[in-house]
Amino acid sequence: MSKQIKFFLLAVIFMFTSFTAYTSVTAKPAYSKTLEQIYKSKDVYKDTETRLNELSRNYSSITYLFKIGQSVQNRNLTVLKVGNGPKKLFINASHHPREYMGTILTLNQIQYILEAYAANKTIDNYNIKKLLDKEVSFYFQPLVNPDGVQICVSGTPSYYFNANKVDLNHNYDALWFKEITSTYSTGEKPFSEPETQAVKALCENIEFDLTMAYHAAGDIIYWYFGQQGADKERDLAYANMLKNLTGYTLVSPANYKSSTSGFKDWCVMKLKIPSFTLEIGGKRGLSKPVEWSWYNSVWDKNRLVPVRTATQLLKQTKFNDDKKTALIFNKSLVVLSQNIVSVDGTSYISLKDAQALDFASLDKAIQEELSASRISLKGLPYLKLDALVGQLGLTCRYDKAVNTYYIQ
Ligand SMILES: [Zn+2]
Asked: Active-site residues (predicted)?
């Protein structure tokens, strides 16, 4: 080979490798389906799960995917945590099946935020790396009612309930009263449904500072459920911000009791936190899912909602107190009966909660050995968390920002 040819080949190889290196850094990750394909899919549940897995894998340093329960028909109720900061926002969609454009919207919001994070860009003039690394954790649940959405896309487009024929957004404990007709179905008691039980457990264990639920349609925002004084002022300020951003109309606080026992109602009344219901997709009611042609305008109006809400939250003076420890075991939320406590720098878990882990799988000798080193707090037996986790061959990580233990 002549010197010129060798040089030429080396130059080509160099150009090729530097080009591929360049493209691999800047190219956005690929996804198995587009958002439009997911919306038009016959298995929205499976495709949403796949997309959440892909998002979690593509941005593993800043996301955490976990399960908060299972639906009536045993589908996963999945949450993606985005960010490592101490202020916590929960955004969910599709309590009502035919309103599942909110599922697509929240998947898009997640992707938009993560792409800005990876590219070190701003959204709404706010540095997203700073926001997610240090300030905020978003918890997204794009599909509150996966069974209902599957019923909706499998030939019953007007479907409104879960698989038990309960309206999940009338199943929360906020001025709940029993009424079961063909169009209004509260369930037998508040939180009778596994889907609302899972949302309740998540909210009570993570202790969000603010929550938001996407519904359709109407281009309106519900924000009021009896708040008084400073809480009312605080929540009206958020509502006005959301109104200005989306162009949606605020629903008047008068006659707020005409619709009760919704997710937002419960957050405001029982958790005492700001909470908003956004009805996307046009000024109208719905009898079937919003046509896909509406999506671009829905996206335009709601693109900035998570970040703008988060930055307003950071300016809030009083936050929800972090009183409860959360535990996520094998990627599933565990409802603890007692907080995990720290004594002289060592973490202890109550014996009862330890038994909800794999404790029973340990042989008797090890159980006795662990029990021998147990301590008593407020009359209850506690075990050393590290020793238990070690015996089970698991690892434990404590996330101080959101007061959560992860064991897997
Ligand atoms: Zn709705």
From this structure: 279
User: Which DSSP string do the residues of 26-84 spell out, in sequence order?
Assistant: HSPPP-SS-HHHHHT-S-HHHHHHHHHHHHHHHTTTTEEEEEEEE-TT--EEEEEEE--
Residue 274 C-alpha to ligand 1 middle, in angstroms? 19
- Give the separation between CA 224 and CA 269, rounded to whole angstroms: 10
Tell how far the Cα of 213 is from the centroid of ligand 1, in angstroms. Answer: 9
Q: Which helix (H) or strand (E) holds 382?
A: strand 380-384
- Identify whether residues 87 and 123 lie together within a single domain: yes
Which one is catalytic: 279, 291, 368, 369?
279
Longest dimension (CA), the chain: 89
Q: For residues 44 and 159, is the Cβ–Cβ distance under 8 A? A: no
Element (H, E) at 313: helix 305-315
**Kind and range of the H or E element at 195?**
helix 194-206
Q: Is residue 152 part of a domain?
A: yes
* Spacing, Cα 117 to ligand 1 middle (Å): 31
Q: How far is the CA of 299 from the centre of ligand 1 (A)?
A: 18
Residue 227 is assigned to a structural domain of this protein? yes
247 and 267, same domain (yes or no): yes
361, 255: one domain: no
Q: Is 195 a catalytic residue?
A: no
408 residues of the chain, pLDDT tens digit each? 555 656 555 555 555 554 444 444 557 888 999 999 999 999 999 999 999 999 999 999 999 999 999 999 999 999 999 999 999 999 999 999 999 999 999 999 999 999 999 999 999 999 999 999 999 999 999 999 999 999 999 999 999 999 999 999 999 999 999 999 988 999 999 999 999 999 999 999 999 999 999 999 999 999 999 999 999 999 999 999 999 999 999 999 999 999 999 999 999 999 999 999 999 999 999 999 999 999 999 999 999 999 999 999 999 988 888 889 999 999 999 999 999 999 999 999 999 999 988 898 999 999 999 988 899 999 999 999 999 999 999 999 999 999 999 999
52 shares a domain with 151: yes
Task: Tell me: do 228 and 284 sit in the same domain.
Answer: yes
